[in-house]
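Notes from the pairing session

We agreed to fold both candidates in a single pass and log them together. This is the raw record for the first candidate, unedited. Please don't reformat it; downstream parsing expects exactly this layout.

Candidate A
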Amino acid sequence: MAKQKVAMLTAGGLAPCLSSSVGGLIERYNDVAPDIEMIAYRSGYHGLLLGDIVPITQEMRDKAYLLHHHGGSPIGNSRVKLTNAADCVKRGLVKEGQNPLAVAADRLAKDGVTILHTIGGDDTNTTAADLAAYLGANGYNLTVVGLPKTVDNDVVPIRQTLGAWTAAEYGAQFFDHVSNEQSAAPRTLVVHEVMGRHCGWLTAATALAYIDRTKGHEYIEGLMMNTDLKNIDGVYLPEIAFDLDKEAARLKAIMDKTGFVTIFVSEGACLDAIVAEREAAGESVKRDAFGHVKIDTINVGNWFSKQFGALIGAERAMVQKSGYYARSAPANARDRHLIHSMVDSAVESALNKVSGVIGHDEDQGGKLRTIEFPRIKGGKHFDTSAKWFADVMDFVGQSWKPV
């Protein structure tokens, strides 16, 4: 058998699983193939194109368990699309006229890599699919196995992506503190903006985690630090349709009664309408290398704050975003269990030369398997028919209907 050499990279935005996943891969190869050589490419596909290598030393192998206790990525991230040659040239990653896929493939061959693990979301793994297809079509002997990372939990056909559960937990922890801002001034509107470009899963799951967390608090009713202050009064997702004026009337009644209103908003809620509104006004909306709107330039939470703030008579309105706090957290116990099972499957698949993305395949009864690259897609919508979501909305007291 030819000598094996493993490379790994993490890419896209952060999620609370990257460090643990890297640690898990190192540990698993130590267990089943201790003699195998391992490297990482620094800052994802950026480092692959530039040949920026991090050798996995014996000390790193011995201390890999420590990575389970950290957030972020120990090998760095970036957003690079290997089929967007113009962007790669602009960023100095390849030269004019070069095909980034060919540059990446040649680098892997030069480095003697036989197994590549990509840890990322749909963009990372669809880029890995492009790379795997190029390698296969051009005679390269390399297996590519991805692990699905995204706080949005929006990858088709994967039931649960790594890091999403942790992001919901830390988003709830973040807002448990921020909600106390309701006591800072009369008639305050607090908007909690949660990550989720196309999918409202994380906003809904964060609301559930927040409800579960605050249910355990004890209050002195009659003072402002009471159950009303800790309530959620509205939840708005890309998958939910609502009438702005009717919702404003409902929220105004709450404001008049309690003196404060709290809403949870997905950063993708009403995004298309806001972008269309801005482009119609002649504004140029920025997009990334993958063609996605640069969502941080849109500020959906601010739009909700302005719209509802005026209509409900808020004297103070503030937007608080839990995204960076939540996505940079270390993986919680639930995610570490999922990481462990996916890492074991990823290593087994790689050593058996089966390329794809590891996940519980919703089209095959939720079985954990290596899902074929062409089937991996982004933009999966949250299933609002889930009972737990209905329970959340009943608790909030909000009428809603799917888009």
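Candidate B (folded immediately after A)
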Amino acid sequence: MSDSPAPLADPHLVFDPVEGAREIAILGSTGSIGTQAVDLVLRNPDRFKVTALSANGGRAGLLAEQARRLRVRTVAVAQESAVPALREALDAQYGSDPLPEILAGPEAATEVAASACHTVLNGITGSIGLAPTLAALEAGRTLALANKESLIVGGPLVKALAKPGQIIPVDSEHAALFQALAAGTRADVRKLVVTASGGPFRGRTKAELADVTREDALAHPTWAMGPVITVNSATLVNKGLEVIEAHLLYDIPFERIEVVVHPQSYVHSMVEFTDGSTLAQATPPDMRGPIAIGLGWPERIPDAAPAFDWTKASTWEFFPLDTEAFPSVGLARHVGELAGTAPAVFNAANEECVEAFLAGSLPFNGIMETVTEVVAEHGTPAAGTSLTVADVLDAETWARARARELAGLTPRTPDAPRTSRTDNDRTTAEARA
């Protein structure tokens, strides 16, 4: 690679040592990433101290329990209507002890992200994580990023604020690339290889996917996840998003980022170097390992996640991606190269089309066909203009409305929730497959 400035995520940078426990703020604490992060912190009280928690508000009892066990200063919820239930749950947990500060409203997570701490773990799902990501970066916090959407839809905004190496990725694929990249210099890297399980439809042709059902798509062979994330794995949209994310995190051109199907999900991603060697990062499927990298780097946390039992035989397989049956990765490369608001349009249109498929209003193949049409109608973003948060939100609003129109859904009321944006979706893994 060239000698251009260090990328957003760079394992070679020297991180300032932290005396005592590293102070952490966890966004999305009652979701999948958040609950596993809390487990990791509770098992390592000498290494980590949580200062603040934020969540959507739908699981007040769990949030209050986390706050009491971690003894946090601040608890935040996005839903102001959740405050009475949260206060009641905190009273039950704390008894006569003083309660933590309570923040509420759409900006609560953003306020937590800018609060005094060392590292912010952004485990929020969806593009609503963009404002907290920007706030954490602007405040100078190390950002452990599990919210891929904020980087994908707001790439130029994130890159404008982030210092080199300020972001440590928590996606299993990008945590794998991050670790493998530590083995060589930037000039040594030939390509990044992102692995995909292939989802429930691996090996099927496009014609064979025409009549698959909601139940078929939700039967993932490797991971137990929420419905939206599982459908994204079935269409391989999640891999397309990860290709964009890899490009932004590591400053690698799209033509040097490859996707390969690996059904076992043991190898989380690989880096091919110019001498012909390839380094693969492999663990049993468990998100606590990537979370530990995000919170503890450059130190490793002993027993953060299970290791392989090498006394047992196993088979690891790799297959090329069928780009005809799964055009999502190619479309994601296209919108990534267009940049600007195009990735936000792609992501928002896909969320609406997945909802239409789950509701029975759109066939499986219709998801990507509709997203492709919305992206085409959006066209090429204007060059030479500075992207703003308002631009991203406007593009998302248009894309959602247009996708719903093409999918035959009724227009959404302003306050109607989306499946992917609630912490009631009790997934046991993120889009790792």
